[in-house]
Design a protein that fits this description.
Elements lengths: L3 H6 L3 E6 L7 H6 L4 E5 L16 H13 L6 E6 L14 H6 L3 H7 L38
Parallel strand pairs: 1-2, 1-3
């Protein structure tokens, strides 16, 4: 097994994208070429990747990916929505590509999990902040609560 330091040099990375039929996904491969990607389309049963049923919103697509790939998960997997500039992207002017490019990969690998959603303003309260783009300031953050894997 590779050490966290070795993984940080060239970890395998996967974007699991919750999409919809007819949406534009070209930005993913052109702007995030260093990530592999798989796009789930729940409302098109002919799509290469789709959940068995169109239920559960994006959670069903993310769970489908985990189940289908459990024995072959990447070092780093990001579960994202299809839209590059979504309301749920709190950082870098809502540009998901900038957020993923600035992700502190070695920190995420050392923590085993992080949430891409929260920022300082208006995001999460300092007691539970989840900031994958910087090191925690102290042990009050949610990171300190996660058990070692």
């Amino acid at each position: 097994m590779q050490s966290t330091e070795d993984l940080a040099l060239s970890p395998s990375k996967m974007l699991v994208v919750a999409g919809l039929a007819g949406k534009d996904f070209t930005w993913i491969n052109s702007l995030l070429a260093d990530w592999d990607s798989i796009i789930y389309i729940p409302d098109d049963s002919r799509a290469p990747h789709h959940p068995a049923q169109n239920k559960g919103r994006e959670a069903n697509m993310y769970l489908t990916y985990i189940i289908e790939n459990y024995g072959n998960l990447r070092d780093l997997t990001a579960f994202i929505h299809w839209d590059r500039f979504g309301w749920h992207n709190d950082y870098f002017n809502r540009d998901l590509t900038l957020g993923l490019r600035n992700l502190k990969v070695n920190y995420v690998l050392s923590q085993k999990y992080t949430n891409l959603r929260c920022t300082l303003e208006p995001g999460c309260k300092p007691v539970v902040e989840i900031m994958p783009f910087r090191q925690p300031l102290d042990n009050r953050t949610t990171f300190a609560s996660f058990p070692e894997a």
